[in-house]
């Protein structure tokens, strides 16, 4: 495709995705979760702003986790923080199915899920000043230099996210890839809508609300460090 053809293409076709959709095979239990539990926990993408108070049946602070993987951390957080509602966004079906089964097992009422691109959800389905907190933990680091542009933490993305946050809302980032941690810090320190919650240019200590997941333990065994970043909406 020529450069001009790419320029003339609709925005959604030109956008660089921060993920590759490799679905993998869902287990029978995960497949059944979509058949049995999606109507309860899932939100279908419509391209219009959602009334989350209606989805949850109450008015409570809303926490959004982008790219929740297998849902281990989201399931734990929602169970131990019942005064807030949780919105998970993930594109990979097996993780969504696994999380729905975990939520159904404890009859959870404070979690809803999108199986969709997080950027499009933020753009179209989340009204301004909706989110009390956003979490992006261990996103794909796209470690090859030619792929760095695919990283979700970019100036345009954090500017969009800021518009969806309430005043003083919290953004919590975490990664086990040091070059990505440095990239995150650089982007966030330059973002006018955000201030570092622990001091300019500083990484944060691991907060108690971020549990150590199977993914993180595997990385630690391989000698990876972990970097947390906490920012508040100005």
Automatic annotation (TrEMBL):
Pathway: tRNA modification; N(7)-methylguanine-tRNA biosynthesis. Keywords: Methyltransferase, S-adenosyl-L-methionine, Transferase, tRNA processing. InterPro entries: SAM-dependent_MTases_sf, tRNA_(Gua-N-7)_MeTrfase_Trmb, tRNA_methyltr_TrmB_bact. It catalyses: guanosine(46) in tRNA + S-adenosyl-L-methionine = N(7)-methylguanosine(46) in tRNA + S-adenosyl-L-homocysteine. GO terms for molecular function: tRNA (guanine(46)-N7)-methyltransferase activity. S-adenosyl-L-methionine binds at residues 65, 90, 117, 140. Substrate binds at residues 144, 176, 213-216. It comes from the Bacteria. GO terms for cellular component: tRNA methyltransferase complex. Gene3D superfamilies: Vaccinia Virus protein VP39 (3.40.50.150). Residues 146-151 are annotated as: Interaction with RNA. Its EC number is 2.1.1.33. It is an enzyme of class 2 (transferase). The keyword tRNA processing applies. Catalyzes the formation of N(7)-methylguanine at position 46 (m7G46) in tRNA. Belongs to the class I-like SAM-binding methyltransferase superfamily. TrmB family. This is tRNA (guanine-N(7)-)-methyltransferase. It comes from Dyella dinghuensis. The gene is trmB.
